[in-house]
Specification:
- This protein has 374 residues and is of the alpha/beta class.
- The protein has helices at 4-7, 51-59, 104-107, 164-167, 173-185, 200-211, 227-233, 248-255, 270-279, 303-306, 321-333, 352-360, and strands spanning 11-18, 26-32, 39-48, 66-67, 71-79, 91-94, 122-130, 133-138, 147-151, 155-157, 192-196, 216-220, 237-239, 262-265, 286-289, 310-313, 343-348, 366-370.
- The protein folds into two domains: 11-171 and 338-370, Medium-chain alcohol dehydrogenases, catalytic domain (Quinone Oxidoreductase, Chain A, domain 1, Alpha-Beta Complex); 177-315, NAD(P)-binding Rossmann-like Domain (Rossmann fold), CATH 3.40.50.
- The protein is 26% helix and 26% strand.
- Helix 9 (270-279) links the parallel strand 14 and strand 15 (286-289).
- It is globular.
- GO terms for molecular function: S-(hydroxymethyl)glutathione dehydrogenase [NAD(P)+] activity; zinc ion binding.
- Pfam families: ADH_N (PF08240), ADH_zinc_N (PF00107).
Length: 374
């Protein structure tokens, strides 16, 4: 049953506020209003730092002040009018990709996107205020806060036995990389794959290639320290572009008798996107752009596609969010996918700037921040 008294009150809590771009986050007391119609207020238990948070903080000029964070997990505290799918106490993961199940997009098996997703990173339709000022919500989630309010179409109910300080990672990075391999590329058994970039998304892509039955998985990165970790997730070969005096696409073509069957770019750099495309075998290779960026154009020669290659993009690994995330949680509990192995650091929300610095310097895969006690 809904607790009307609880719903009616504003919650004051701690959050990491990004007041302006390129500046450290500030731990502030914010006010979080009650959930309105079709909304859910969530107590965030754990969250982690993703490159997309850094992208907004360091590259965007608009959309401030905001509460960042979109890879989190928590417990429903209260629900607004019209919400029947959730009740207080449910374990949930907030989603930056919605699934309303009603629009043209949600009804189509060809996409995992929804026509009701916000079209900007920092939405003005926020339930946060701080020091009398409206604070924007980041991709509809804002998990760097003890409490957040999310539309019910962007919340996934998960297994009540799931450890929130682990499965929070399934809110973005792991699903993004893993799904890019199994859902978007549709990697086939016995194939050869190349994954460019061995951050959390790239390692998850390696894991997806292995799960799909790939025979050889090339892990490509300029940091050789990451190769041992990639082996844990299923990589069979390791290539450091700095070790070669020719383009990496040529190196891979020579190692694979013409090119890999599938390549996945998990960095977000347009020159690497082209290299990944050119690393595929010309006649049937599939290359998937996974790394997020919106800063530059990318290019390729038409003949690189005319001959038979396919160039695709993948957002959140092609998962229909409300369906896919609970299934990935179940697969984790059934030991079918790895999650714990992505976590290199554990900190508290107060240490969020330290966690951001670790990611900027590529000294972590994922840092999990403890936000609230369960």
């Amino acid at each position: 049953m809904q607790n009307i008294g609880k719903i009616s009150r504003v919650i004051k809590c701690k959050a990491a506020v990004a007041w302006e771009p390129k500046k450290p986050l500030v731990i502030e007391e914010i006010e979080v209003t009650p959930p309105q119609a079709n909304e859910v207020r969530i107590k965030i238990v754990a969250t982690s730092v993703c490159h997309t948070d850094l992208y907004h903080l360091l590259e965007d000029e608009a959309g401030f002040p905001t509460v960042l964070g979109h890879e989190g997990a928590g417990i429903v505290e209260s629900v607004g009018p019209g919400v029947t799918e959730f009740q207080p106490g449910d374990k949930v993961i907030p989603l930056f990709i919605s699934q309303c199940r009603e629009c043209r997009f949600c009804k189509s098996p060809k996409t995992n996107q929804s026509g009701r997703d916000p079209q900007m990173m920092a939405s003005a339709d926020s339930r946060f205020t701080c020091k009398g000022k409206k604070v924007l919500q980041f991709v509809g989630t804002s998990t760097f806060s003890e409490y957040t309010v999310v539309n019910q179409i962007a919340v996934a109910k998960i297994d009540p036995t799931a450890p929130l300080d682990k499965v929070c990672l399934l809110g973005c990075g792991i699903c993004t990389g893993y799904g890019a391999a199994v859902n978007t590329a549709k990697v086939e058994p016995g194939s050869t794959c190349a994954v460019f970039g061995l951050g959390a998304v790239g390692l998850a892509a390696v894991m997806g290639c292995k799960a799909a039955g790939a025979k050889r998985i090339f892990a490509v990165d300029i940091n050789p320290d990451k190769f041992e970790k990639a082996k844990v997730f299923g990589a069979t070969d390791f290539v450091n572009p700095k070790d070669h005096d020719k383009p990496i696409s040529q190196v891979l073509a020579e190692m694979t008798n013409g090119g890999v069957d599938y390549s996945l770019e998990c960095i977000g750099k347009v020159d690497i996107m082209r290299s990944a495309l050119e690393s595929c075998i010309p006649s049937w290779g599939v290359s998937v752009i996974v790394g997020w960026t919106d800063l530059e154009d990318f290019s390729a020669r038409p003949v690189q596609l005319i001959a038979g290659r396919t160039w695709k993009g993948s957002l959140f690994g092609g998962f229909k969010s409300k369906d896919g995330v609970p299934q990935m949680v179940k697969d984790y509990l059934d030991k079918k996918v790895k999650v714990d192995e992505f976590i290199t650091h554990n900190m508290t929300l107060d240490q969020v700037n330290d966690a951001i610095e670790l990611m900027k310097q590529s000294k972590c895969i994922r840092t999990v921040l403890s936000v609230s006690p369960q």
